[in-house]
């Protein structure tokens, strides 16, 4: 951390950031055009699948906050998706259908869970951190399986979607879609502000050399735990959206397989870029839908694609676009 950047290296970093923000803005514009396109094609399926894309984009971006900038590989992050989905189910069973209250409930539970489990997990490193987050995620998974009042392993169907400040989202896929898009844009702006703040620079420094950062007066544990909690809370928002999109909740939302899928989305899009995981979520889900329609063995082809991507573009789709010059910001 004491080394000084050369002039070319110092100049490239702001251009990369500007290019990634520009790429995110382009993605948001394309997302905004999906409902009119679906209306023109008279196919509401695209709005439903688009809402799912946006929700997973939020979750992947949240995971990138700790994986890409804090080097914390959480293999239990899908637990926070589950907290968001069950916040909708439990509150709905008591007649509370307001989306903002469901989001706040999901955030509150996720913050508490992340605080407790993060405080324990962050005392480990490397593969031990991966395994302990996996263990905590599975504990949450089996806890919700045991909730027979909400369907247990079979899941729980929602009687209606949520409302937002009195506006009924039931049967309005376009309304839910645009609410999700607004959340994605707002959360991207928040994450971008975090990673480019003093907090984010310290977190990145801890990723590079925690011993040196501690020697200059920073406490790595506090910064990492804070980032861990923020990431879990953002992921729970994606869970609230997924519950409303599917009108169904299940412990399957929080299985370790789902955590692995989130990591794949981050790696596919580009670790430590924020915009990359958004594109990675869209790419992964598009490949899942497309290859699944062609063959029941689609996971084999998806795996081959991922291997090729890692071999030829280790920085994912973001690295590929930066090589071609499509994500270079102005100097």
From TrEMBL:
Pfam families (UniProt xref): BPD_transp_2
GO molecular function ontology, one term from the record: branched-chain amino acid transmembrane transporter activity
InterPro entries: ABC_transp_permease, LivM-like
Entry keyword Acyltransferase: no
This protein's name: Branched-chain amino acid ABC transporter permease
Species of origin: Thalassococcus profundi
Domain of life according to the entry: Bacteria
Gene Ontology cellular-component annotations: plasma membrane
Positions of transmembrane segments: 21-39, 45-66, 78-97, 103-120, 127-150, 175-195, 216-242, 262-286, 298-317
Cell compartments where the protein resides: Cell membrane
Membrane topology note: Multi-pass membrane protein
Keywords: Cell membrane, Membrane, Transmembrane, Transmembrane helix
CDD domains xrefs: TM_PBP1_LivM_like (cd06581)
């Amino acid at each position: 951390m004491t080394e000084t950047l050369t002039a070319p290296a110092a100049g490239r970093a702001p251009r990369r950031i500007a290019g990634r923000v520009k790429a995110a803005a382009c993605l948001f514009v394309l997302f905004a055009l999906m409902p009119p396109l679906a209306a023109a094609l008279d196919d509401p399926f695209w709005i439903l699948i688009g809402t799912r894309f946006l929700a997973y984009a939020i979750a992947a971006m949240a995971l990138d906050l700790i994986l890409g900038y804090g080097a914390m590989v959480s293999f239990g992050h899908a637990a926070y998706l589950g907290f968001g989905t069950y916040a909708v189910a439990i509150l709905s069973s008591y007649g509370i259908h307001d989306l903002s209250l469901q989001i706040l409930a999901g955030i509150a539970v996720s913050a508490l869970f992340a605080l407790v489990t993060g405080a324990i997990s962050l005392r480990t490193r490397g593969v031990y951190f991966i395994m302990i987050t996996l263990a905590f995620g599975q504990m949450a998974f089996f806890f919700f399986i045991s909730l027979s009042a909400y369907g247990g392993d079979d899941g729980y169907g929602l009687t209606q979607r949520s409302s937002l400040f009195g506006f009924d989202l039931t049967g309005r896929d376009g309304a839910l879609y645009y609410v999700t898009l607004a959340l994605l844009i707002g959360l991207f702006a928040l994450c971008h502000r975090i990673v480019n703040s003093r907090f984010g620079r310290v977190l990145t420094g801890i990723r590079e050399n925690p011993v040196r950062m501690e020697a200059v007066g920073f406490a790595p544990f506090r910064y990492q735990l804070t980032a861990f909690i923020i990431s879990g809370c953002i992921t729970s928002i994606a869970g609230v959206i997924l519950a409303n999109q599917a009108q169904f909740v299940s412990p399957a939302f929080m299985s370790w397989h789902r955590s692995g899928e989130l990591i794949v989305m981050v790696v596919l899009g580009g670790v430590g870029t924020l915009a990359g995981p958004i594109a990675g979520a869209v790419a992964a889900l598009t490949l899942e839908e497309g290859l699944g329609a062609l063959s029941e063995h689609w996971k084999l082809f998806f795996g081959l694609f991922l291997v090729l991507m890692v071999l030829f573009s280790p920085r994912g789709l973001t690295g590929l676009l930066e090589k071609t010059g499509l994500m270079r910001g102005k100097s």
